[in-house]
Amino acid sequence: MTITFPGGFLWGGATAANQIEGAYDQGGKGLSIQDIMPSGGMFPPVKGPTEDNLKLEAIDFYNRYAEDIALFAEMGFKTFRFSIAWSRIFPNGDEETPNEEGLAFYDRVLDELEKRGIEPLVTISHYETPLHLAREYDGWTDRRLIDFYERYAKVLFERFGSRVKYWLTFNEINAIMHVPLMAGGILTPLEQLSKQDLYQAIHHELVASARVTRVAREIAPDAKIGCMILAMPTYPLTPDPEDALQALHSEQANYAFGDVHCRGYYPGYFLRTLREVGVELEITDQDREDLKNTVDFVSFSYYMSVCQAADPDKQASGEGNIMGGIPNPTLKASEWGWQIDPVGLRIVLNDYWDRWQKPLFIVENGLGAKDQLVEVDGTRTVEDDYRIAYLNDHLVQVGEAILDGVDVLGYTTWGCIDLVSASTAQLSKRYGFIYVDRNDDGTGTLERFRKKSFNWYKEVIATNGGSLTV
Ligand code: BG6
Q: How buried is residue 97: exposed, middle or buried, by Cβ count under 10 Å (0-12/13-18/19+)?
């Protein structure tokens, strides 16, 4: 069988500002929540920026963006996903006027992408709420964040709307249920956060996402706005119908976010959950109107699948996974305990397409692994056959889904250049085609090296998937 990807398929790679840029206090940037999270999104924050926080310097993309984009172009990238750091544009988040130096930086990045013929794919908010909004408002629990976010997004559409076609409103919007600080700028720890505040924060983000979708249509009519969901297919641990029901409930907790973005209103099962946990959402008439501004496409991240069982004793969750779930006994896991399941990607693609009938964009997928820099024929590289195998097998399943009739816009591998991990804040959890010489203790020259997967991906793109091993 040959895998055929559609003409114009957007091959590329994905990143986020806080994980690559560094320069945390340059160019008028304010602090973001990431600047006080030296251990990653699954651990409590500290009081202020500390030396052990690798994100403060990250991989110095802020100063090396031209060199990095040249490497992406060498691989033949059609698109590059990056986020705009909200705190570069509005250092505190609640100011009236934006920081010109911040906007100018992204102008330069866009110039470079344009020069190389790479289509930008911009995330408006990727786990990097301005710290002031977390401290003063407890993040998205406060309705005023809708207005601050709208003001910020409006500035972006006005400034970049003619140059950027694809926009994502919130990275992994459903992750707020599990990591409210990282995904919602909420400083109150999850154990102390009331269900009322958590669901109200979710509502505020959903309204904000829909509202800026309307704003984009007014300011930049050619823009395509997508939501972004953390996809994690959930299988029943056994054929017991009760396990299947439990798996469905887990899926629904994620579907709800896509359902609202694609249908414009809350689904019945979600309203039932609210009633059962005793939450009464404050929803204004204007909110209901705003929610009707549905997205143009659905994007998602995909790394793994999990299982669910009705029996609470079986519900031990997998290692290092922010969403919980039971490890699947039939699958192998990565060095960080993430279960590797290429077929799960085909399942998600079919499922989401059938459910929402909107074009899909896989904006994150990849293998976080420990790499060894070696010398081959006088060139320093990484022989990352494990990463090639992972990506190949997932892409074959994307090809299968396309044959199934799913409309797939593109595929951007996560961390196309090594970057700082979101969950653990390590650099040793590497995803890239490009090795960055920086270690978990902060040492390293920041020099870039092409891994074996660099040439492999270059060939995949050049042949539009024809070189994949089926
Ligand atoms: C997603 C995030 O959760 O997964 C990224 O959108 C993150 O920001 C990626 O980096 C991989 O997770 P991790 O924890 O390995 O960096």
A: exposed
Residue 217: strand, helix, or coil: helix
Q: Is 128 a catalytic residue?
A: no
Q: Tell me which residue of 146, 272, 290 sits closest to 217, measured CA to CA.
A: 290
Q: By C-alpha distance, which of 171, 80, 175 is closest to 128? A: 171
10-462 CATH choice from 3.20.20.80, 2.60.120.260, 3.10.580.10, 2.60.40.10: 3.20.20.80
Residue whose tokens read 């070189």: 467
In the chain, domain spans: 10-462
**352-394 pLDDT tens trace:** 999 999 999 999 999 999 999 999 999 999 999 999 999 999 9
Ligand 1 mean position to 2 CA, how many Å?
A: 31
Assessment of whether the complete model's pTM goes beyond 0.90: yes
CB 184 within 8 A of CB 129: yes
Catalytic: 51? no
Please list the residues that pair with 102 across neighbouring strands: none
Atom of ligand 1 nearest to the CA of 336: 15
Set 364, 375, 400, 459: catalytic member: 364
Closest residue CA from atom 12 of ligand 1: 422
Instruction: Give the Å distance between the CA of 65 and the centre of ligand 1.
Output: 20
In the structure, how many helices (H) and strands (E) does the chain have?
Answer: 14, 14
- Give pLDDT < 70 ranges for the chain: 316-321
How far, in Å, is the centroid of ligand 1 from the Cα of 377? 34
Amino acid at 399: G
Which residues line ligand 1 at a C-beta cut-off of 6 Å?
16, 19, 127, 171-172, 301, 364, 368, 414, 421-424, 429
